[in-house]
Write a structure and sequence with these properties.
Immunoglobulin-like; mainly beta; 6 helices; about 625 residues
């Protein structure tokens, strides 16, 4: 109807202009009563806004760890405190996810909502502090682990406190950083680190299944202490903790055949290994190492070598950091007040000198409160323990995208800019391979929520940067019924049409599943992130309307471009797409939010007063205009 009004109004104006000129011709010469306000307009492409509510950002990560590390970005702190343990908030979805290369590095261009000023970077790796709050600055998100403060520059300070009855290997500063960390770290085999990390990830993020329920074979049948069968030295590597309790880790030794009681523990030499073990501990502790010392009762001194026949018992001093008392959990279940197992000591299935220790400080039984590696200097020097369970590979990593698409269907003529002729909400799950980081599939549900037009409007999208032979399969369905399983015929690029007439699909979700080959060059998130290149086709298939700056499909009626208010190219001949002469769009993508679109004939500039402030600043100011 608006198209008709536009045409009729221009016809009337033209007619009146002719009549007026005839009537006045005898007394007034050369008067033009209708003048195109843009007739002498200089069209410079750079002077026109792109109306993007997302920013292209450079993401650069360097964890300094030789491993494929899965990472997630959130727009809010994703961790929540539950019963003394930090858990992933299941009500918050990541806004991006990826995988580093084998060197622990990632650098890529990503698109995130422009209103974001801060993101939270999360990973499940045992040697990475998480989450990390990072400011979005200068179009970049950067994290370099090895740029953190050096341990060597941290001065030891203050008086140290620890529970009564314990000995120490040295001192530590106010943050709990020991002065007895190894200056030159022992190499940890990559395969062992990966197995530790996989199990630790399972322990940390599987909040519903206690460890021993998940792996009953890890249930201790004895003391769960370490038994030395051949003289060796031992080094422990600090892994991250999920505990909000400020704990300490300690150990004691006794001899094979020696039967200890809990009363004996009170008088035995107990040595603090790690003075501070919690989620709040300094990030630079992760990956650093401490050499365990054997207390020789005969010489009353510490030695590097643990002799054959030595047994090592472990203690987790709950809330013991910087205190003179603590709630103690023992590796020997019989010493615990409730008789429950509070630790697991696991062997690497392939390396007989590598072990993983996980300890529980409270009630959730996930054993993620203190986790560390133990390596012996001599092979086959420690009695075998249950092995680290076989884990599935890294599998897949997923994150969510959502938003609203709004269209003015009067293009190429200026409409009323109520941006409600076609309104479609969408939500998508984007899934990547957990090793390569390539896309494996996207599952996107589009729901038309408003039809404010007289015209018959269809809807579809184009994959601008993906070849048809890179797509393994396409499925379009609604209400459990398959609508389509193939791309549109006769197009240069992959094009999916969801419907020809919105009226039959209003408030009816339509789901599109695209599966991609991870061979044939692979498809990255930058190549195919929903909502892709969305468009409506109004009145006919060739009458397409896209987001500003997006190219039409090969079925577009090119004769329409550059007519009415549309600009086809600038003064230099550079192509321009779907932007009006008065620098207004015919479609908008509202990122990460379902849009409260204007009422019929209510100009978007009236409903959202800061819309034009955003436009005039070229997206630098009022990036949250659609939330106000």
């Amino acid at each position: 109807m608006k198209y008709i009004y536009e045409t009729v109004s221009k016809t009337i104006i033209g007619f009146l202009a002719i009549v007026s000129s005839i009537g006045l011709n005898s007394c007034v010469k050369d008067i033009n009563l209708y003048e195109d306000p843009y007739a002498n307009q200089n069209i410079v492409k750079e002077n026109f806004f792109d109306f993007a509510t997302v920013d292209a950002l450079n993401l650069k990560l360097d964890y300094g760890i030789a491993d494929n590390i899965i990472y997630y970005l959130y727009n809010a702190d994703p961790m929540v405190l539950v019963d003394g343990s930090w858990e992933l908030n299941q009500d918050i979805e990541p806004i991006y996810a990826g995988v580093t290369d084998i060197e622990g590095r990632a650098e890529e261009e990503i698109s995130l909502p422009a209103l974001l000023k801060t993101v939270w970077l999360l990973t499940d790796h045992v040697l990475v502090k998480t989450p990390i709050e990072i400011a979005v600055q200068g179009g970049s998100i950067n994290y370099i682990k090895h740029s953190e403060a050096s341990l060597s520059t941290r001065a030891m300070m203050g008086e140290i406190q620890y529970p009564d009855g314990y000995d120490v290997l040295g001192s530590w500063n106010a943050d709990g950083v020991p002065d007895y960390l190894l200056a030159e770290k022992e190499d940890m085999p990559d395969a062992f680190l990966r197995r530790c990390n996989t199990l630790a990830s399972s322990i940390t993020f599987d909040t519903k299944n206690p460890l021993l329920d998940k792996f009953p074979e890890l249930t201790a049948t004895g003391t769960n202490d370490m038994v030395i069968v051949s003289a060796t030295e031992l080094v422990a590597t600090y892994f991250k903790s999920s505990s909000s309790w400020e704990n300490m880790v300690a150990y004691y030794t006794y001899q094979d055949g020696e039967e200890l009681t809990l009363a004996d523990i009170n008088s035995i030499k107990k040595t603090i290994l790690f003075p501070r073990y919690s989620n709040k501990a300094p990030a630079e502790l992760l990956g650093n190492q401490v050499r365990l010392k054997y207390w020789n009762k005969e010489t009353e001194s510490y030695e590097n070598t643990f002799p054959r026949g030595t047994r090592i018992g472990w203690l987790l001093l709950g809330m013991g950091w910087n205190k003179t008392s603590a709630t103690v959990r023992y590796s020997n279940p019989s010493f615990n007040a409730d008789g429950k197992q509070r630790s697991v000591l696991l062997s690497d299935p392939e390396l007989d000198n590598c072990f993983f220790m996980a300890m529980e400080d409270n009630l959730d039984a996930r054993f993620n409160d203190a986790q560390f590696a133990i390596m012996s200097s001599q092979p086959k020097s420690i009695e075998p323990t249950p092995v680290i369970p076989d884990q599935v590979d890294k599998g897949e990593v997923a994150y969510m995208a959502m938003g609203t698409l709004v269209f003015e269907d009067n293009w190429p003529f200026k409409g009323d800019y109520d941006m409600n002729d076609v309104v479609i909400n969408f939500q998508s799950t984007i899934v990547k391979d957990g090793t390569s980081g390539l896309l494996t599939r996207t599952t996107t549900t589009y729901t038309p929520v408003n039809n404010g037009a007289i015209f018959t409007n269809g809807f579809g999208f184009q994959l601008d940067h993906v070849a048809k032979n890179q797509v393994k399969s396409l499925t379009v369905s609604s209400n459990g019924m398959i609508i389509n399983e193939s791309f549109e015929d006769g197009t240069d690029k992959p094009v999916v049409t969801l419907f020809d007439d919105i009226r039959g699909y209003l408030n009816r979700p339509i789901t599109v599943v695209l599966e991609y080959y991870t061979t044939r060059g692979g498809v990255t998130a930058a190549m195919a992130t929903p909502p892709y290149n969305p468009f409506v086709f109004s009145r006919s298939r060739g009458h397409e309307i896209h987001l500003a700056g997006y190219q039409p499909t090969s079925k577009m009626d090119e004769s329409l471009r550059g007519t009415g208010e549309d600009i086809k190219q600038d003064d230099k001949g550079e192509p321009m797409y779907f932007i009006s002469r008065d620098n207004m769009p015919f479609a908008l993508y509202i990122a990460k939010s379902y849009f409260d679109f204007p009422d019929e004939e209510q100009d978007i500039r009236d409903k959202y007063p800061h819309f034009m402030d955003w436009v005039n600043s070229f997206g630098k100011e009022y990036t949250d205009w659609y939330l106000r």
